[in-house]
């Protein structure tokens, strides 16, 4: 049976091609709180993103809502890219930002818009 770290690494490589170097077995870089990256591979990408109950597109939409509410700009940068890879259109991402104004407030939505404009470009 494949362990959660390997499943998480595979999922992350599929959703963000080229971000994780070939041959990597984790996200450790030797810095402060080094284990945090591998913990996210185990617990988030390996255990949650690989569950059968929701497809990746749906998981991306739920994740964007949570990260917008938390005003987690750095994580949003990554997850806007993942959302596009998982099939969300630019318009759907915009609607998620608009929708969150009613639940997380305008400051959170404006913050998410700033990050989206930094990461995503209209074609």
From TrEMBL:
Keywords: Oxidoreductase, Peroxidase. Coiled coil: none annotated. InterPro entries: 4CMD/NDH-1_regulator, AhpD-like, CMD-like. One of its GO terms (molecular function) is peroxiredoxin activity. Residues 36-118 form the Carboxymuconolactone decarboxylase-like domain. Pfam families: CMD (PF02627). This is Uncharacterized conserved protein YurZ, alkylhydroperoxidase/carboxymuconolactone decarboxylase family. It comes from Mycobacterium terramassiliense.
């Amino acid at each position: 049976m494949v362990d959660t770290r390997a499943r998480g690494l595979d999922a992350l490589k599929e959703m963000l091609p080229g971000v994780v170097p070939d041959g990597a077995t984790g996200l450790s870089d030797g810095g402060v709180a080094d284990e945090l990256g591998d913990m996210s591979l185990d617990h988030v990408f390996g255990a949650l993103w690989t569950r059968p109950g929701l497809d990746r597109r749906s998981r991306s939409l739920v994740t964007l809502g949570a990260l917008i509410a938390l005003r987690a700009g750095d994580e949003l940068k990554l997850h806007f890219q993942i959302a596009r890879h998982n099939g969300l259109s630019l318009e759907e991402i915009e609607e998620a930002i608009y929708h969150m104004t009613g639940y997380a407030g305008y400051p959170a939505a404006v913050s998410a818009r700033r990050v989206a404009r930094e990461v995503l470009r209209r074609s």
